[in-house]
User: What shape does this take?
Amino acid sequence: MIDRETFTELMSGVCAPVTVVTATAADGRPHGSTVSSFASLSLDPPLVSFALDRASGLLAHLQPGDPVGVNILGAHQQELASTFARRHRGPGLKFDGVTWTVRAGLPYLPESAGWTAGRVERHVDGGDHILLVVHIEEAESTAAAPLVYARRVFGTHSLLAVAS
Ligand SMILES: Cc1cc2nc3c(=O)[nH]c(=O)nc-3n(C[C@H](O)[C@H](O)[C@H](O)COP(=O)(O)O)c2cc1C
Assistant: This one.
């Protein structure tokens, strides 16, 4: 058995992408949360996955069949990552003061480094988290530098110096 600290310390050293996953509630209000567990899962069919804490407020709006958006943040969007990581905010409140629009019926953060949208295909039990498998229907990438998270700080990706 490994203890909690050993596990979290190990995972803090794994460099992760930073996204804001979004959904639209039945009453039309936008929901969004910062998510670093986003990953590519399958090319054919095109599937991605991410894990949400069972206590996540967003999870209720992402049931199998529901549409879901993923804003892949760029290095210039660190503030948005912190805004959407705030817990216990009322419906739609995280979007106060944030520039956003609707794309494919989902909350979209313009200037993001990438965007993809699709439908939740299924939930997979993942201990205290739920793994969501998403079938991708649209995607757009840009050349913007990505925002990444490792050792509990934000950063970006850069080339190693080429050895001469
Ligand atoms: C860099 C970063 C990455 C995160 N990644 C995840 C994640 O993959 N899954 C998750 O459930 N929470 C993740 N969180 C925490 C959520 O963003 C945070 O708990 C949020 O308040 C949940 O909001 P909600 O309850 O409205 O869904 C992350 C937070 C940060 C700062």
